[in-house]
Design goal:
CATH class of the largest domain: Alpha Beta
Largest sheet: 6 strands, mixed
Distance between the termini: 53 Å
Helix content: 25-40%
CATH superfamily of the largest domain: Aldehyde ferredoxin oxidoreductase, N-terminal domain
Oligomer: single chain
Strand content: 15-25%
Strand order of the largest sheet: 2-1-6-3-4-5
Number of strands: 15
Shape: globular
CATH architecture of the largest domain: 4-Layer Sandwich
Radius of gyration: 20 Å
Length: 349
């Protein structure tokens, strides 16, 4: 069975804990682990921004394998937004590298007396000084860490929003893959944990390789035969703009309406035609739906459907370049685009 990395930043203590077989069988992994652990570790009196809160990064049982879509990362903690259990997930490559670095989950508790980052490589971990990174945005932080440690490392970090305990702060991996919901970036900032950096070559072994490979092939065939897949591969979640607008479900003017006259300018078709320069995929994903856009000298991923609503139609804005830039700024500062857009829409009304 696997291992859990336990980190107490108050005591600067790191330890390994064996993964309980009964826990794995009952809760599988990912969100199952997160909810069980949070139920056990936190309570009604736990301060979400206090050292007693736990911040959990968890993988699933097939993370790091070639199973389609197995690259999802689950992050959880008591939410500063709601005071309840909070969780968020993201794509990218961070979750598989938790496995490759030797762990199934990382549980962070306590609070450091100074800014730090956690470095993990092949079953060993270190708490390192991050004073030089504090104050940088997430893109700058990742660039600095990769310059120091090598391009192959995977980084999850917070920006200025998390450092300043903004309750809609997010955790960003790979610059544009974001665990954005429920303010978990603020929890990470409250612990003065700027980043987690992974490097590993441990790999993942499956119990029945031949059967697993056969099932993977069947899964891939099913995906590729789906009439939905071709359109999704081309546009990602932005494909939803036109159909949702056509049926009156495209959030507009702080949800006063479901139809936006400028929807075409925010559509995936428009973004691809005018701004796309490349495509990329999350780990082991057949959809490779991420469109890389370019504005001036800057390059980044396309806004997801929810962001196009939040910074576009819900604010009565039909300027795609504004929405793209706002999305990238949120990724840099580490802010949830949905919460921020909804707050602006409320203030606008």
């Amino acid at each position: 069975m696997g291992k859990i990395l336990r980190v107490n930043l108050s005591a600067a203590r790191i330890s390994d804990q064996s993964l309980d077989k009964s826990l794995a069988r009952k809760y599988l992994g990912g969100i199952g682990f997160c909810i069980r652990w949070l139920y056990d570790m936190t309570g009604p009196k736990t301060d979400p921004l206090g050292p007693e809160n736990s911040l959990i990064f968890a993988t699933g049982p097939i993370s790091g394998t070639m199973w389609p879509g197995s690259g999802r990362l689950e992050v959880a903690g008591k939410s500063p937004q709601t005071g309840l259990i909070g969780y968020s997930n993201s794509g990218g490559h961070f979750a598989p590298y938790i496995k490759y670095a030797g762990y199934d989950a990382i549980i962070v508790e306590g609070r450091s007396s100074r800014p730090v980052y956690l470095y993990i490589e092949d079953g060993r971990a270190e708490i390192r000084d991050a004073s030089n990174l504090w104050g940088l945005d997430t893109w700058e932080t990742e660039d600095c860490l990769k310059e120091e440690l090598g391009e192959e490392v995977k980084v999850a970090c917070i920006g200025q929003a998390g450092e300043n305990l903004v309750k809609m702060a997010s955790i960003v991996t790979g610059k544009c893959r974001v665990a954005a919901r429920t303010g978990l970036g603020a929890v990470m900032g409250s612990k003065r944990l700027k980043a987690i950096v992974l490097r590993g070559k441990k790999g993942v072994k499956v119990a029945k390789p031949q059967l697993f490979t056969k099932l993977v092939e069947m899964g891939i065939e099913s995906i590729e035969k789906s009439p939905f897949s071709e359109h999704y591969m081309e546009f990602g979640t932005t494909l939803l703009v036109a159909p949702m607008n056509s049926i009156g479900r495209f959030p507009t003017k702080n949800h006063w309406s479901g139809v936006f006259s400028g929807a075409e300018m925010l559509s995936g078709e428009y973004l691809v035609e005018h701004y796309r320069v490349a495509k990329r995929a999350c780990f082991s994903c057949r959809f490779h739906c991420k469109n890389v856009l370019k504005l001036g000298n800057e390059v980044g991923d396309h806004p997801e459907y929810e962001t196009l609503c939040s910074f576009g139609s819900n604010l009565l804005i039909d300027d795609p370049e504004f929405v793209i830039k706002a999305n990238w700024l949120c990724d840099k500062y580490g802010i949830d685009t949905i919460s921020l857009g909804a707050t602006i829409a409320w203030a606008m009304e």
